[in-house]
């Protein structure tokens, strides 16, 4: 088991995992492999991209895609996506990916880590267990068209 930096060649495997994790009744997404690959490629190609995969015996089990973001209170890492194969969830793999980002934040003297997730999904409790807090002053809005 190892956490390593994500490479462009990992995008297809990560897209497959993203589809399998989010295309269900809980998340109610309808990703297609090609769209997921384009989405993850867009993130991968962002300035200051930071990404990791967790793999075992050459098979990718999960990924984290993030970017370093300049902010008024100090640069931070914004986690765009974090996913682990459903068959491997609950084993600490997601926590290992977050710990690697925490290490990056500390090594680079950044302000912290930010992210968003579905308020009603189990992911919220996962992040709270890792020390994340609800930011009462932040409101996430959307407008569907």
Topology:
Elements: E1 2-5, H1 11-22, H2 33-44, E2 49-56, E3 59-69, E4 76-84, H3 93-107, E5 113-115, H4 123-129
Helix pairs in contact: 1-2
Describe the structure.
There is one protein chain. The protein has 145 residues and is of the alpha+beta class. The chain has a single domain (2-129), classed as Aminopeptidase, CATH 3.40.630. The protein has helices at 11-22, 33-44, 93-107, 123-129, and strands at residues 2-5, 49-56, 59-69, 76-84, 113-115. A five-stranded mixed sheet has the order 1-2-3-4-5, sandwiched between helices. A hairpin with a 2-residue loop joins strand 2 and strand 3 (59-69). Helix 1 packs across helix 2. The longest helix is centred in the C-terminal third of the chain and has 15 residues, at 93-107. The chain is globular.
């Amino acid at each position: 088991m190892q956490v390593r930096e994500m490479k462009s060649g990992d995008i297809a495997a990560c897209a497959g995992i993203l589809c399998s994790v989010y295309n269900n009744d809980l998340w109610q997404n309808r990703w297609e492999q090609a769209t997921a690959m384009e989405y993850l490629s867009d993130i991968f190609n962002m300035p200051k991209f930071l990404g990791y995969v967790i793999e075992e015996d050459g098979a990718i089990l999960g990924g984290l895609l993030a970017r370093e973001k300049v902010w008024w209170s100090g640069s931070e890492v914004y986690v765009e996506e974090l996913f682990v194969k459903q068959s491997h969830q609950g084993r600490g793999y997601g926590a290992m990916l977050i710990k690697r980002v925490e290490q990056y934040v500390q090594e680079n003297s950044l302000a912290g880590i930010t992210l968003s997730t579905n308020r009603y999904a189990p992911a919220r409790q996962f992040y709270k267990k890792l020390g994340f807090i609800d930011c009462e002053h932040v409101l996430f809005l959307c407008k569907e068209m």
